[in-house]
């Protein structure tokens, strides 16, 4: 029996996977052997989902069929939308509303899959992936006192979400930027939410249960949400009387931690942050430059002048995704649900991969409580 305790399972190998690999020292991320740079700049989110689920990039015919099958599944039952409306009126948190809606979607699943029917699981996963954007956009519309916008089957998943959110078809730069952001968040090894989904899947529970659990894990502030924190800091800088460089210097002197810096795995700049930095610059050139300027100033000051880069503390994907989403007109508290909207593809892929050679995940804990206690009957206590 192994007695070593690794708190948080840090560094513990619990599974083998052919889905994604993170090299924290080199700043390298791959999906199925393809670099994240090539996929983000050359493939659509739908291509990446197909790659994760089927192990290879789709042909043109494959992609056309796969994209069409996703588009066909975007509509959500009226009863689910009614519940989403009630949650919006109750001022429920977006992640909690998304979690509730996904759980409810299972009641309207048209296919009863056996636990070991992995093809059926993927079909159910396709429906979840297609419907999540519809649910999230509807939630935001209801919060604004407006009716949901029907999905447009002629738009890709990313462009369609922005369309359902605003009622206006996004321009090419916005659609491409958001599609790229979804690709960058699609998978990232055995992070907390992916591991949660995989643990649930190891019990041979249905994929709706696994995805619901993944959303629950992602909602925690130590996992999802850093991009929202980054944007709130940038807005604080914008409202301050100080120059943005002065604000950063003062925050550093006060010992404030700037969100979006540092990562459990990366010791260098997150490769996803580099890509989103490029997109942030493009959006700035097409709109407001201040958000890009704020982020680059913070990065330069903390990385170079404060020496964080030498300590292995560098910007992660959240540091730039916050300002990118803001420039796309996305409400700040939807950033983490959007993370879930993308990462669902990775959760599903990991569950299916693990179930192909399944073993119930059942770790042990070291008992530290009292021993040999003498039981006293109730009437004598």
Taking the sheet with the most strands, its summary is: 3 strands, antiparallel
Morphology = globular
What spatial order of strands do you see in the largest sheet? 1-2-3
Number of domains: 2
Q: Extract low-pLDDT stretches.
A: none
CATH topology of the largest domain: Citrate Synthase, domain 1
**CATH level 1 class label of the largest domain:** Mainly Alpha
H/E series: EEEHHHHHHHHHHHHHHHH
Instruction: Report the β-strand fraction as a percent range.
Output: under 5%
Overview of this structure, please?
Strand 2 (28-31) and strand 3 (34-35) form a beta hairpin. Helix 11 (226-239) packs across helix 15 (317-327). The protein has two domains: 73-218 and 332-356, Citrate Synthase, domain 1 (Orthogonal Bundle); 226-327, Cytochrome p450-Terp, domain 2. It has a three-stranded antiparallel beta sheet. The two termini are 38 Å apart. It is globular, with a radius of gyration of 22 Å. The chain has helices spanning 36-42, 45-54, 60-72, 78-89, 94-105, 118-143, 157-166, 172-184, 192-202, 207-218, 226-239, 244-253, 271-286, 290-305, 317-327, 335-356, and strands at 20-23, 28-31, 34-35. The protein is an all-alpha fold. It has 16 helices and three strands. Helices cover 56% and strands 3% of the residues.
């Amino acid at each position: 029996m192994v007695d070593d305790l690794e708190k948080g399972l840090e560094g513990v190998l619990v599974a083998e996977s052919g889905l994604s690999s993170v090299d924290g020292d080199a700043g390298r991320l791959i999906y199925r052997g393809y670099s994240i740079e090539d996929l983000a700049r050359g493939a659509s989110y739908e291509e990446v989902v197909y790659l994760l689920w089927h192990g290879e990039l789709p042909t043109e015919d494959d992609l056309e069929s796969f994209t069409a099958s996703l588009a066909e599944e975007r509509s959500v039952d009226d009863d689910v939308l009614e519940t989403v409306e009630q949650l919006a009126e109750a001022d429920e948190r977006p992640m909690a509303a998304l979690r509730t809606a996904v759980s409810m979607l299972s009641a309207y699943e048209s296919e009863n899959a056996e636990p070991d029917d992995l093809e059926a699981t993927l079909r159910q996963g396709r429906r979840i992936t297609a419907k999540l954007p519809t649910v999230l956009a509807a939630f935001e519309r209801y919060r604004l006192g407006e009716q949901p916008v029907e999905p447009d089957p002629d738009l890709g998943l990313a462009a369609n979400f922005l369309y359902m959110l605003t009622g206006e078809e996004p321009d090419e730069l916005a659609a491409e930027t958001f599609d790229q952001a979804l690709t960058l968040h699609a998978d990232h090894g055995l992070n907390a939410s992916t591991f949660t989904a995989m643990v649930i899947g190891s019990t041979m529970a249905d994929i709706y249960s696994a995805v619901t659990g993944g959303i629950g894990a992602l909602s925690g502030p130590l996992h999802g949400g850093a991009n929202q924190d980054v944007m709130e800091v940038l807005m604080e800088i914008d409202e301050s009387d100080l120059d943005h460089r002065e604000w950063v210097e003062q925050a550093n002197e006060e010992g404030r931690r700037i969100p979006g810096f540092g990562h459990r795995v990366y010791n260098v700049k997150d490769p996803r942050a580099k890509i989103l930095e490029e997109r942030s610059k493009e959006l700035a050139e097409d709109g407001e430059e201040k958000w890009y300027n704020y982020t680059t100033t913070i990065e330069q000051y903390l990385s170079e002048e404060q020496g964080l880069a030498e300590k292995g503390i560098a910007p992660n994907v959240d540091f730039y995704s916050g300002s990118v989403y803001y420039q796309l007109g996305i409400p700040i508290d939807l950033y983490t649900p959007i993370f879930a909207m993308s990462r669902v593809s990775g959760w599903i892929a990991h569950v299916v991969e693990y179930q192909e050679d399944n073993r119930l995940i059942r770790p042990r804990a070291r008992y530290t409580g009292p021993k040999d206690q003498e039981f006293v009957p109730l009437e004598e206590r």
